[in-house]
Amino acid sequence: MRLMVIGVGDCGCRLAREFAELNKTAKSEGHSNIITCAYAVNNDQKLLTEVTRSGGDWLRPVTVHGVLAGESTEAGAKLMRHESERVMLAMRLGAFVNTDAFLFVASTAGSLGSGGVPVMIQLLKERHIDKPVYALLVLPFDAELDDPQRVRNTALCLKSIEKVADAVILADNGGLGMLGNIAPPQKMGALNKELVAPFYDLLCSGEMTGSKSIVGKVLDAGDIAQTLIGWTAIGIGKVKMSSSKLPWKKIPGFEEKSSESLKALEAMNLALMRLSVDCKLEDAGRALYLLSAPAGKASIDMIKDLGNRLRELAPHSEIRDGSFYGDKNFTKVTVIVSELIYVDRIRNYYDRAARMTRVATGEEKTDLA
What we know:
By secondary structure, the chain is an alpha/beta fold.
């Protein structure tokens, strides 16, 4: 699948840079482009200069003119409505033709990203209704949950984007990467790479050509589009394979095949443990798994075992799968669970925002009253 990535706000711009880096990696490993273009949209010129300097040719800055009237989602939405036509014109329209889908990236707790992304998605869908439009939203750290403005921004952003995006991939930071109440810059950089990493195999799988790249079934853009609907979580698991290459063991025996299948299942379990947001698999209406295994190590049994495992955990899901030859030393499994009917983290933000609003307006007694 080929994505056009649009990062809005500080967090979105930094993640757009990581997607541009993914494309560099894909090109160096001999795959096709997986990112047709990445855009960093912000009103902070200093940050735009920082991210585009390291993002290379595939990351383009788009300056939003004007000053945010506050730190609210509404302020971000107002500024983006005013600037939306100019932002659209700044984006390279020619790349739309080769794009399978659009991915907007932002933090829910800020202003420009949380308010601007729903506005941009609505505008884009009105003009390119034949292509899916997704959002990757980064939820706040636990240390930010006592900040009424950030909680309210998150609740409003989630409520707004649910109505316009074809799918919303949630990335829950939770307490990860925090040192006290501060996330060190080097830690945030590593976290950003972790957030983007699960997309690599997923995007590359359908762009590979030649039979040497394919183990079983190609997972193409159509399969991904059929899976991504509504609230969504993504994860990846990676397990090192045995490196034994004894000359008299050219044909794997039964025990070795079983061991390799167990490693694939271990990789799937890791992917499920590391889903981008905590969710109940039985609540998923759609799911997908992608196996990346060394040449000569993958087998139909591995693929079947993975499918049986996911069907057991997500019995109500319509499941799609794919596989290809990947890293020679690792087995990796990417998992997507989508069309989630209930996500506890989202409900918590709605409830917390409503409670904070009641307290602020005096409708609810507090301990201090």
